[in-house]
Amino acid sequence: IALSGLVPENEHQLNLLTPGINHKKNSDLMKAVDNINGSWGTNTVRFASSGFKDTKAPRALMSKRYTTNWNELPLVKAL
Hints:
mainly alpha
């Protein structure tokens, strides 16, 4: 899930063209994020701007390259 446009509650930039921002709704969203992270662990839900670790899948979990590597084609034997 990518969340964007989230800022600290006390640092909200006002916009003359879109009056009537619902600060309660934003506050409720932040409380929900905090509750999820409290229940499921830190960084379960986080800001996209915080970046992501460059994690690589272990070789054992990688799918075979049947369509791009001749050595990985499955063998079929007649009975």
